[in-house]
Write a structure and sequence with these properties.
It is a single chain. With 200 residues, the chain is mostly beta strands. The protein is built from three helices and ten strands. A ten-stranded antiparallel sheet has the order 6-5-4-3-2-1-10-9-8-7. It has a single domain, classed as Lipocalin, CATH 2.40.128. Strand 8 and strand 9 form a beta hairpin. About 9% of the residues have low confidence.
């Protein structure tokens, strides 16, 4: 019985000698060099992109008729809602399916979007970034071929349509002295949720 107070006093004394709890900076020393940032208006807009979608990819060649390919897409916000991840599968008639993966983020400090895209057709990565702050209505990003001729590149315009039931991405070729030329369109239509069975 006399020893019990000593047993309790030992951890209490150790806690007092340890001093106050470490500050937030000591818990996250990286914050001094890379301060944390929170999602903003761009992430709020990207919430409408989340879900499962039917896709029609239409390619517009310089000559000849447009070529349409069906596909599907699943999109989700990742990294605590900071980025939208997209996974596409395209199924050309009589051909081997191809896949693509995109990641897009928004920087509240600059009001601009940045994206990266990779797919099973090519071994290079495509990078795009907004040239102007987000207007709250559509996402406009420019991309340029690294090492390509000056002034040549592409532009994508993405917007939510039909009350959130559709998303349309349009990609344009940009060349000096010429009007932007539509090269490709991705039209996403929201998949209907699975039917609920009796008792569900």
């Amino acid at each position: 019985m006399p020893r019990r107070p000593l047993v309790v006093a030992v951890p209490l004394a150790a806690a007092l000698l340890a001093g106050p709890a470490p500050s937030q900076d000591k818990k996250d020393p990286q914050a001094k060099f890379e301060p944390k940032s929170q999602p903003g208006a761009g992430q709020k807009y990207l919430e409408a992109f989340v879900g499962r979608w039917e896709v029609t990819k239409t390619f517009y060649p310089r000559q000849g008729d447009p070529v349409a390919v069906p596909g599907t897409c699943e999109q989700a916000l990742v990294q605590d809602g900071r980025f939208l991840e997209s996974r596409f599968t395209f199924r050309p008639a009589g051909g081997k399916p191809t896949t693509g993966q995109g990641l897009i983020g928004f920087e509240p400090e600059t009001g601009r979007f940045t994206s990266v895209w990779v797919d099973s057709r090519q071994t290079r990565m495509s990078f795009r970034r907004s040239e102007a702050p987000f207007d709250g209505k559509q996402i406009v990003m420019a991309g340029a071929d690294l090492g390509g001729p000056p002034g040549r590149g592409s532009k994508t315009v993405s917007r939510v349509e039909d009350g959130g039931e559709a998303i349309v991405h349009r990609q344009y070729a940009v060349e000096p002295g010429a009007a932007d030329r539509l090269v490709m369109e991705l039209r996403l239509t929201k998949k209907a949720p699975p039917a609920r069975g009796p008792g569900q």
